[in-house]
Amino acid sequence: MAAAELDELLVADAGELRAWLLAHHASSPGVWLALTRKGGTLTSLTWQQAVDEALCVGWIDGQGRKRDEQTSSVRYTPRGRRSAWSQRNVANVARLEAEGRLLPAGRAAVEAAQADGRWQAAYAAQSEAEVPPELAAAIEADPAARAMFDVLTRTNRYALIHRLGSVKREETRRRRIEEFVAMLARQETIHPQRARPADGGRAGGR
Predict the structure, then answer these.
(1) Residue 39 is part of which domain span?
(2) Which Pfam families does the annotation name (predicted)?
(3) How many helices (H) and strands (E) are present in the chain, helices listed first?
């Protein structure tokens, strides 16, 4: 079902969300869940509370959008069989397990990820991600690519890191690095951005 076709869900708090998920997590395709904004009174449900309850039943958060002045909406759906795990959610699961909150459906999603390698391949959050050494070296060796890399937005820098991190075969990683360096040298980015090197990315411009 397309994200736009999902029903909206507004609950009073985390306890009410947990009750809803217990009743519907196995049958619902997902919902647009209302989360509180600063000063909001329609619901007390926060993003972290919603993430925790979703992980407990094997669901995952997705794209968000503004709902009104008091709330935002975030798409929550059952986790897909190929859905990647973040290191942050791996840590969240460990905490939920220690607190005795992880339910059978949530544990099944974890065990499936552990069995096929997605758990071990968990990616870093954008704020914590580091540029792989081999990518950094290749960019450093090309002045035009380095000039463009230096002005990348956080989103575009993370996109490079995440896309390379999802590749495990050495040959494929080398090819991906070459593609990224060439892309940067052409001043192209994965996501649109306006910033470009002040000197046009010419060699020796640093």
Answers:
(1) 3-116
(2) OmdA
(3) 8, 4
